[in-house]
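The pair is quoted verbatim underneath.

:::
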Amino acid sequence: MLVGYARTSTQEQETGLEAQLKTLAAASCEKVFSEKVSSVAQRDQLEAALEFVRQGDTLVVTRMDRLARSTQHLLEMVTKLETKGVALRILDFKGEAVDTKSPQGKLILTMFSAFAQFERELMLERQRDGIAKAKAEGAYKGRKPTAKAKAEDVRALHAEGLSMSKIAERLNIGKGSVHRILNPAS
């Protein structure tokens, strides 16, 4: 049996989830588990899919990043599936479909996931280097202050008797920001 799993990180990514579900249906998945949750959060539907699959089944995902956060995590997932006699199929893995039913598929999966993680780490390193260089040149100042820059205005409006909601509305900042300014210890 082909069992699909689809995930998006946020509620706003509805079209991304719909596209994954269409792709999994086109791949003939008979049962599909889906959720809208960050990859680092508790993923109840992934756990349900892993519990559901049986020997001889194949867990199908559209892309590796929908399933795992790193090469190590992916390989742990593959090992967990293999102990149940379940294969993993990734439909788009760097432009290739990969299936762990064959030794070649396992090799490609391991190599490609290592390259993907290496690529990501290089990108993050270049990003950190670019930020450090921009800071040294005075071009990077970070995010512009938002509510903290309006702290005096918040306090003044509060002294006039305005509610937190009215202050937030008037200064175009969040009510939580107003609360933090007025109650810094809490």
